[in-house]
Design brief:
Elements (H helix, E strand, L loop, with lengths): L9 E5 L2 H12 L7 H20 L15 E6 L4 E6 L6 H10 L5 H7 L4 H6 L15 E9 L7 E6 L4 E7 L5 E8 L9 H11 L7 E4 L16 E3 L16 H12 L5 E9 L5 E8 L16 E5 L2 E5 L1 H4 L8 E6 L8 H5 L2 H21 L3 H15 L2 H4 L4 H7 L3 E2 L12 H6 L8 E5 L3 H5 L5 H5 L5 E3 L2 H7 L4 E2 L2 E5 L13 H13 L1 H10 L6 E4 L8 E4 L7 H9 L10 E4 L4 H7 L4 H18 L7 H16 L1
Parallel strand pairs: 2-8, 12-14, 16-17, 16-19, 20-22
Antiparallel strand pairs: 1-6, 2-3, 3-7, 4-5, 4-7, 5-6, 8-9, 10-11, 11-14, 12-13, 15-17, 18-19, 21-22
């Protein structure tokens, strides 16, 4: 094995503030599940071996004559030291400082924010947030890391710290390719110097690591009068790809253990699917639906974790964005192809026809898993709560699967809110429609309370017409891209000129016509005052208990979403809404009775602002609104 020679130099550095915070948590808080440190360090060593194997596809010299990639565990019980050794890719000095001293690209802040105070649960979060190396300080008083980058001309590096604010870096005269992590264990951590304890941890967390994990075997007892046998190095994990094994050999516990190792999730998976495809192309998939959403599910990272691409059992890359559409980014698993070229790059993947076929098949497989899960109402309600908002994105992004997704989505309605089962399907909604109802009515709002109290709900509540209530941020965007279900068009109850004549009785229709005619003068007066704010004023057919409401055009974005985007700094196109009034309401009758035009104008602006606020709109002049409201209230009391 080759090594480098260089003049030694040593420098001391301070940890980044966030790293110091994580180290303090590791040392003082996460003590109830200490064994996970070994899981994390072995996972890092496995990643280093994976990276070398991939890089060596195009540069065989990186192996430096040693292609047997492995992870070795060494116990020095007398010195109180445990070593985790790999002959993987190694690191340069710059990479050591970047990856260990600053971890600027990691999820450190998210990790700290996600701490629950339950040390056992918090210890399971470590792998999810890229802070696994620091788990060494749960058991070690001092950590020494030495490493040399494969194929690099730079000197090897030695890193040392006690986790108390600083670390020292020095160059080494020589070092084999790869990395050695040396843990000087605390006085109460002697259990991790016992080979049986280390073996049990490896069996529990790292049995399916794709590289051999080696360790000196305890020697068999010598016969009387014979010399003790020297211990031999043995492999203590299976070191085989679980997905390549026949399903009949695997128990549920095996699948769950592999899922936790793959995903760094301490929860069990909700379900999984293990399949081998033969034919024009051959590949194996092992796909998991998590039971809990990952912390970064709603982030817009360019590279997503989730599905790992293997070719003939060789890890190639995290290729989630290539193997699954974005709206299924929560899925975890592996895809192992027999046909793709080993030297494939991320750029080549994007145009590879074999990958396109695999992506299509994997997408259908995942949707099939979700559909199967939907047969269990209780399990699917839990799943939908975690992942429903992301699945809805597929209705916009994946036209080919839109019909499948429409059957899967769950929603709350004015009817289901009154039952013990608050979720319903579109098919169930359609089955409950009124005899003459030809549309699926819905309302988007920024909260369920806002939806239920919306003035637009008046006529629907009065006539017991079911309305779908949509309160996810993605809902308004989603509804702009879907037109119908089962031949029934969607209709927002807050947009456009709503025609409900076929759903109300004759008396209600005649009453609306009479009110419209009797209020013509009031409507004209309101138009004149609010000309700069509204496109039109009309008598409403939807209001029952509210004095007025704002109605926007069919193609406009809901008011609450417009307000949110404005607050985020986005420019919104200027447009005027329609103001609908309820002539039966006492406040509207009070306004109609105002003979003083200045007073009428103040009342008119007040009722418009109230309607605007009830839709989630943002007032241009909040102070003016408060002044008008105060003046009107004082005038009533006089």
């Amino acid at each position: 094995m080759s090594a480098t020679t260089a003049e030694s130099k040593s420098t001391t550095h301070a940890f980044q503030a966030e790293v110091s915070q994580v180290l303090n948590l590791m040392i003082n808080s996460l003590y109830s599940n200490k064994e996970i440190f070994l899981r994390e360090l072995i996972a890092n060593a496995s990643d280093a071996c994976d990276k070398l194997r991939f890089e060596a596809l195009t540069n065989d010299s990186l192996f430096e004559g040693d292609q047997d990639l492995a992870i070795t565990l060494e116990i020095d019980e007398d010195a109180g030291v445990l070593r985790i050794i790999d002959n993987g890719i190694g690191m340069t000095e710059e990479e050591v400082i970047s990856n260990i001293g600053t971890i600027a690209r990691s999820g450190t802040r998210k990790f700290v924010e996600s701490m629950t105070g339950d040390s056992r649960k918090d210890s399971q979060l470590i792998g999810q947030f890229g802070v696994g190396f620091y788990s060494a300080f749960i058991v070690a008083d001092k950590v020494v890391l030495s490493t040399r980058k494969a194929g690099s001309d730079e000197a090897a590096v030695r890193w040392e710290s006690d986790g108390k604010g600083e670390y020292a870096i020095e160059t080494l005269a020589e070092h084999p390719r790869g990395t050695v992590v040396e843990l000087h264990l605390g006085k109460d951590e002697s259990e991790f110097l016992k080979s049986y304890r280390i073996r049990s941890i490896v069996s529990k967390y790292s049995d399916f690591i794709a590289f051999p994990i080696r360790m000196l075997a305890d020697p068999a007892p010598a016969e009387e009068g014979e010399e003790p046998l020297a211990p031999e190095m043995t492999v203590i994990n299976q070191a085989t790809a679980l997905w390549a094994r026949p399903k009949g050999e695997l128990a549920d516990e095996d699948y769950q253990a592999f899922y936790k190792q793959l995903s760094n999730d301490f929860n069990d998976a909700a379900s999984w699917s293990h399949n081998r495809v033969e034919g024009n192309q051959a590949y194996t998939t092992l796909l998991y639906l998590p039971s809990k959403a990952p912390y970064d599910m709603m982030s817009n990272r360019e590279e997503r974790q989730g599905l790992k691409l293997y070719i003939k059992r060789m890890f190639i890359m995290d290729a989630a964005e290539t193997l699954l559409p974005n709206y299924l980014r929560f899925v975890r698993g592996v895809v192992d192809s027999d046909d793709l070229p080993l030297n494939v790059s991320r750029e080549l993947l994007q145009d590879n026809p074999l990958l396109s076929k695999i992506r299509s098949a994997v997408t259908k497989r995942v949707l099939g898993m979700i559909e199967k899960l939907s047969d269990d109402d209780e399990a699917f309600a839990t799943f939908w709560k975690e992942f429903g908002s992301v699945l809805k994105e597929g209705l916009v992004e994946d036209f080919a699967q839109r019909e499948t997704l429409l059957k899967l989505i769950r929603m709350q309605t004015t009817q289901t809110r009154k039952t013990d089962e608050p979720w319903t399907t579109l098919a169930d909604y359609v089955s409950r429609m009124k005899p003459n109802q030809d549309k699926i009515y819905y309302l988007t709002a920024d909260s369920m309370q806002a939806a239920l109290n919306s003035p637009h709900m008046g006529i629907f509540d009065k006539n017991d017409i079911e309305v779908v209530l949509l309160t996810d941020r993605v809902d308004e965007w989603m509804m702009g891209h879907i037109t119908d279900f089962d031949g029934k068009p969607f209709q927002s109850i807050a947009k456009g000129d709503l025609d409900l004549n076929h759903l109300v009785d004759e008396d209600t229709r005649k009453q609306h016509e009479a009110q419209s005619k009797a209020s013509e003068s009031l409507v004209e007066r309101l138009k004149a005052v609010l000309d700069d704010k509204v496109e039109d004023v009309r008598v409403s057919s939807r209001l029952t208990d509210s004095p007025a409401c704002i109605v926007i055009s069919e193609n406009e974005m809901a008011m609450h979403l417009q307000a949110m985007l404005k607050q985020a700094g986005h420019e919104m196109p200027g447009s005027k809404p329609t103001l609908e009034i309820n002539p039966q309401h006492a406040l509207v009758q009070l306004i109609d009775g105002q003979t003083d035009e200045d007073s009428f104008a103040e009342w008119a602006r007040l009722i418009f602002d109230q309607a605007w606020l009830s839709e989630g709109g943002q007032l241009e002049d909040p102070a003016g609104f408060v002044r008008r409201q105060n003046e009107r209230m004082m005038s009533i009391g006089q």
